[in-house]
Amino acid sequence: MDRNMEFYGNRALHLEDEFTSLQASKILTILACSAPHPGSLDISDLWRWISEQLASRKPEVVDVVVQEVESLLRVRQFRIPFWNTQNAIKELVFNLDKSTSTPQMQYQIIFCLWLLTFEPEIASKINKLYDIIPKLTEIAKAAVKEKVIRVAIATLKNLVEKAPSENLAAMLVAKLLPFTENLSTRKWSDPDILEDIDYVKERLQENFQSLTTFEQYASEVETGKLEWTPPHKSETFWKENASRLEENNFQLLRQLARILSTATSPVILSVAANDIGQYSKYASKQGKRVLQEVGAKQRVMELMTHEDQDVRYQALAAVQKYMHQAWYVSYIFSKC
């Protein structure tokens, strides 16, 4: 790209006239994509401008810039700079979440995610930061267009191939395994879809067999997708594993507290309150202190007045377990 063209093009991006700035972005995109040595280009200003436009309330503007992202991400050297652009991925995923998102827009955005996930650095972090595995799974389940399912599965395949340890457990939590088993029985016009489906399904089956019960539980907590799976109610599970919530500076316990503070789903709140109560029965003295420091104890007490009956019940039960354990410890010490 000619340096003068790059300079004047970048200036044109920031003109008040929307038509001119959009035309400038198209020209800069074409020039960047056709550059003989893309690794030597600095398109950070273009990426920042695109990131801002992804937040536009005008569908026609978003449509243009998503097409530009598609084109630019085909060039591998441009992927990490886009990933590192403030709010770029956030706004891209937000547009995927919009209820007004058309099948074509879904396809285009997921295509962008597919290109990004060829990079191991991105594949290892994108779900943890932007929760894309359950999003892609739900979109594929609801999709009518075969091409939307195809690109969603292809993206999930990339996540498995490039960063299996970071993504397989989250896929099991998102119930991707039964979905891929269902997809593998359908007829497809494109045989490549079935290859990708079978690959993801087989890797999930292998991982499911090797995951311990605690690893499955930890994946639920890490993703925030809590459900009434067997470990939550198992006394044996908590007796054997409660102390593991204290590993890595109480990482899982702190995540449970975050879920309690941010979740709105009554089911998730009920399960989280239950888990805090179960943990309290076996918590160390330091663990009890952490519960107070992160606000989990206070939050559980607040949930005793929640509008949902089961949330109230689980919160009350958790407080009772906490108070009983505190009394029991005091009683034991008084006898020493």
> What is the overall shape?
globular
* SSE ordering: HHHHHHHHHHHHHHHHHHHHH
Helix fraction? over 70%
Described by strand count, sense and barrel closure, the largest sheet is: none
Q: What is the radius of gyration computed over CA atoms, rounded to a whole number of angstroms?
A: 24 Å
What's the architecture of the domain at 212-336 in CATH terms?
Alpha Horseshoe
Distance between the termini: 79 Å
CATH superfamily of the domain at 212-336: V-type ATPase, subunit H, C-terminal domain
What is the CATH level 1 assignment of the domain at 212-336? Mainly Alpha
CATH topology of the domain at 212-336: Serine Threonine Protein Phosphatase 5, Tetratricopeptide repeat
Reconstruct the topology from this structure:
Layout: H1 3-13, H2 18-33, H3 44-54, H4 59-73, H5 79-83, H6 88-97, H7 103-116, H8 120-123, H9 126-130, H10 132-142, H11 146-162, H12 164-173, H13 176-183, H14 191-210, H15 213-223, H16 235-241, H17 247-262, H18 266-280, H19 285-293, H20 296-302, H21 309-335
Can you put this structure into words, describing what you see?
- The chain is mainly alpha-helical and 336 residues long.
- Among the domains are: 102-211, Leucine-rich Repeat Variant; 212-336, Serine Threonine Protein Phosphatase 5, Tetratricopeptide repeat (Alpha Horseshoe).
- It is 74% helix and 0% strand.
- It contains 21 helices and no strands.
- The protein starts with a helix and ends with a helix.
- Mean pLDDT is 90; it is low at 327-336.
- Residues 211-327 form the ATPase V1 complex subunit H C-terminal domain.
- Keywords: Hydrogen ion transport, Ion transport, Transport.
- Belongs to the V-ATPase H subunit family.
- GO terms for molecular function: proton-transporting ATPase activity, rotational mechanism.
